[in-house]
């Protein structure tokens, strides 16, 4: 079966966060009160809020440059609208909207992509309805993005030494002229998607979890591509992005790891 059709399934995937998002042309008329007004329309589902610094503007091409911007006001914050106990949240700033699922407790189960994407689409629809009711212009999408963050935490595993028990595209860590094993490793690999639909990136890094200081190997898959205001195109793009991520995750990880994650 072609990779574009297959959807590998793991009973216990190491996914800790999934984010569906859209960057759009900045809403010049957006002001602080609009956060509260939009929040009131979704309060039953997302009653809690947090303030965060805004995310930097995305670029699809490394060579892309943006001209100088003359701002009469400082950049507005990014606001989280959170659904208790915190697994689902909306991130909103004047040029970007994301919907996240995140693992809060060890026992939290990933609800699968279809459920996460449905909540994103509901959020995008609610945002557009609010803008219309407030007399604000409709957002013009620029970039779609889908991100999967995986945390690999196993008893007695040390990284980067043991990372190749889980990643299958190298056999061992590169050897230097010293007699000791590598103590740190980070890498990024980028693949263009077919039909100019964007690019898939894999970022690999390791460290220690904040809550328990256990060694963790982090695999972050992200797909970004040019967006349009066509809802059908949006559904198609996210479907392609999801298949690119899950099939690449399966292909780049080992049979040993698949056993731990209970590949079905």
Biggest sheet architecture:
9 strands, antiparallel
Provide the low-confidence segments as ranges.
63-72
Number of helices: 4
How many discrete structural domains? 2
Q: Major sheet: order of its strands?
A: 2-3-4-5-1-6-9-8-7
Gyration radius, in Å: 20 Å
Measured by DSSP, the beta-strand proportion falls in 25-35%
Mean pLDDT across residues: 90
Distance between the termini: 16 Å
**Overall SS class:** alpha+beta
Q: What's the number of extended β-strand segments?
A: 9
The shape, in one word, is: globular
Helix content: 10-25%
List the helices and strands and how they pair.
Blueprint: E1 15-24, H1 32-41, E2 48-52, E3 78-83, E4 88-93, E5 96-102, H2 113-133, E6 141-152, E7 187-192, E8 199-208, E9 215-226, H3 231-252, H4 255-260
Antiparallel strand pairs: 1-5, 1-6, 2-3, 3-4, 4-5, 6-9, 7-8, 8-9
